[in-house]
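Justification of computing resources. Each target in the renewal requires a structure prediction run like the one illustrated here; the chain below, 267 residues long, is used simply to show the kind of job we budget for.
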Amino acid sequence: MTVFAGQGDARRSMALLWRAPEAPRPGRSGPKPGLSVDAIVLAGIAVADAEGPAALSMRAVGERLGRTAMALYTYVPGKAELLDLMHDRVLAELPSPSGGHAPAGGWRPAVTAWAEEALDCYLRHPWVLQISQARPVLGPGELGAMEALLGILQGARLDPRRLRGAVAALWQFVRGAAQTAAEARAASAATGVPDEEWWHARASQLAELAPDFAERFPLLTALDQSGAAEAGGRAGAGNPAPDRAREAFRTGLAVLLDGIAAAADEA
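Resulting structure tokens:
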């Protein structure tokens, strides 16, 4: 399920994201004490983390706070605006801006640390991966995360065109890796069949039904055998065990950073 951000009222959504004071509306009293936008957003995140985005509703968030759904509308106009606020709050967990300066330890280890933290953030909140990147929420958390990555990459001294490409590639790489890992977890939970058991059952069938597999797919076979050897014989045909998935993430990231370094050398 793909969710598009920014479906609520543009002015009210942006005002909430940036916590701008809202002009009082005639005939409506101010909010009662005991609730806040931040409390509602955190409760919404807790609902989505625990039960997935399909379970998110103003009523579910209200119940978590011990309030009715109607009590929330004084603070947040509706579910669309709440989702924008939740998304931006999660992205605020990523490293904060570095003031536009490259880190003292060099851009490459800093990007590696950023990517690891971003991956972990997405895996803590996998519902965020269902929110399309086609329309950003343009909140301080989202823009701050982008500013931080740009600050880290200042040390690579890329020209603007390559810098945009590097940021896009890094962001999509991390999201893609997180999506695969999150879906693997969800598949195990939804089907009741662990990944190891699923892969073993099908790999054994493949060996029986395609005895000439190694001759037909020699490159895949060689790659899988090398992976099995590195993992102490625990790998199966394409088996993305958690430790191998993290290793593949780090290896792929290193290759991507090699490309950024090469582009920096050409500048």
